[in-house]
Structure prediction request, 343 residues.
Amino acid sequence: MTLLQSVKNAVRQRSIHVCYVDTGSCNGCDIEVLACLSPRYDLEQYGIYVHNNPREADVLLVIGGVTPQWEDKLKMIWDKMPEPKVAVAIGNCPISGCVYNRPDSLTRPPAKSYIPIAAEVPGCPPRPTEIIQAILSVAPLIFKDWEIRK
Amino acid sequence: MASVEWIKTFFFAKTAPLITPSHFRGFPHLTGKECTHCFQCMMICPAPGAIEVIRTEKPGEWKPVIHLGHCIRCGLCVEICPELVLDSGRVHTKNAQDGTYMQFQFHITVNPVTCMGCGICSVACPVNKEIDPQLAAKGTSTSDEVIMRVYKGINTVFHEEKCTGCKTCEEQCPNRSVMVARVLEPLQITEEP
Prediction:
């Protein structure tokens, strides 16, 4: 491993930029993601920054059971993100649709069928600690030695 | 030396990760008590596909399985279980403390506009069949002990409390005019003053 690569690995672990996309959730998971920013959980001490701009994000948090309007747009957002990138499904909705996944409902879960999801955080909503843990455990795994494995 | 320490704490200071307290309601886990497969947990669960009671490899042994990604951690299955098979957080402790428990019954609604009095629901009902084996064809038995039967040209509910919630009537109705709803009541044991 070159020195440059080891520097990149070290930096990428401590600087994770997050973009979240709400594909039709009930706002419960959004509030839990927002709570991660609060002093109690303090996301930024781990080097995670919320930008809400896919063009400068490393991690995409997908929230909500995908509504018909989001079917093509979720892929568009995913394509805008620069490599290396990772998508994390937050909550039950992008995993299974949960309580909204009923006959004739306007949800098209899972989010897995539109973009590759690296990690899923179950819960309705998941706790902020679980969200932070998921991001911290999955992002460095994907980003480590990205140029070598590419 | 002090400056090195200072630089370390300045750049790498992190609060200890928050530990989830034990009284938080997590995903339900098994307590090891014997499951009698009464399926009350499956019936009460508000999330589709979150809990399943399945037969294990051991003969005659059943156990509930929680599916992550479906479970919403409401704890209703923990509360309703009469055998205390599941546990989560301090649900049982709080229930014992406050004397709270849950009870449900089934409410049958017949839409008088769409019901054409064909009696298919009354004939299909397995509980009706046990009470009055004579109840057949058009559902016009004279027994008043049945859950429901056709009375004056319309399906009439007599004994709602006997309903077991199998929803056979709802499935068999050609007009979708029968609806079975579960009415859940949280109750508390009150001491007489």
